[in-house]
# Entry
Amino acid sequence: MASFDRILSQKSIFRNLSVLSPHYVPKELPFREQHIEEIMTVVSPALKGQKPRNLFMYGKTGTGKTCCMKRVMEDFLEAGREKKTSMHYVNCRIYNSRYRIMQKIMKNYVPELEKSGFGLPFLYEKLVEICSGGEQMVVILDEIDMTKDLDELVYTLTRANDEINGGGVSMVGISNKLSFKDSLDPRSKSSLYETEMIFQPYTAEQLQRILEQRAEKGFEKEVVNSSAINLTAAITSQESGDARYALKLLNKAGEIAQQNGKNKVTDEDVETARKKVEVDLTIETVNTLPEMHQIVLYAICDLSVSGSRYARLQGFENSMLFSGEVYEEYEKICKNLRKRPRSSRWYKEYLNDLEVLGLITTTPSGKGVRGQTTLVRMGQEPRCMLDILKKSLFSEYS
Ligand SMILES: Nc1ncnc2c1ncn2[C@@H]1O[C@H](COP(=O)(O)OP(=O)(O)O)[C@@H](O)[C@H]1O
Ligand SMILES: [Mg+2]
# Structure
């Protein structure tokens, strides 16, 4: 029978769940001491009243960029408490435009912004005013590539520096996209990339150490043995070297062991967890996609399941789709959803974004096949994805 008494008296194998969450920032970050030292060196002039050079950090997901920056930020705020400095962290996935980013930063100075909107000129003037009082402001733009009008933002902040007398504003950009640099306006590029820092994916041995450190704090003694840790590290390094994935996997394995009333996490639990985590991650990725991206992905899934109408005729496998037929399907679905389809220029952007997220792969067809076209293929099992997308796109209509 269900009862709180019984549930609460169950012994947990977890000592501290929050340690295993992706938001936890450990005091020590093995294999990243040098990166942390370097970031500190770059931002340190702000603590002496001088403007730091802008910094750009990039590397694949889960290489520790965000947590290194948060680690530095904690120490920076502590060291700068009595000084005219500030550091603001903005996640550009959430605050994804110049206006929203400026608003988020200036809220710290103008609490009224919480209630009513002010125009960009007001926010800009306020920024210049504050920094002209001598403040050295460091703005951290995490997932900077999600900013829709980044060139404008960089321009605005750069121009602000020309007007500011006394203090300054500098930027730390962080991106998971390795090729991001190429898509920037040359002026923004040279401004943002005054200093560059690369984060390499972790090796299996490094992941092992990171997992051990977290398991020690997150689980009760002797719950997770080294074999389960090694397997988690091995699986992760094979896939991506993404520390977030590794932690998620270990956490899930723990949940599975717990649900089965076991007091140890075994290799078997890690294997079971692997399948669950993959589905969870796909759901998460798909659900956080903007609508137009979802519709394009839906078109690709749907056509993948039914098979391309043209590919076989041209001697390709029918899991390969022609970019043009996907676009036609996309237009059709938009019509069903009563949305206006975007131009094919936007459509190419969407394909590019979906590829960066690992959801699809694209290849040029080479000459001769209906002129020159792009071939599109699902990165994963389309049926499972189709279900997720249906829920997200059509549930309010059914
Ligand atoms: N060197 C490290 N030591 C301990 N934990 C780490 C380390 N690097 C990353 N992590 C953990 O992995 C997860 C992902 O790191 P994060 O900084 O968010 O990666 P990124 O921003 O590069 O995608 C976080 O939970 C973080 O605490
Ligand atoms: Mg990050």
Notes: The pocket of magnesium ion (ligand 2) is lined by residues 65-66, 142 (CB under 6 Å). Residues 33-199 form a domain with the Rossmann fold fold (CATH 3.40.50.300).
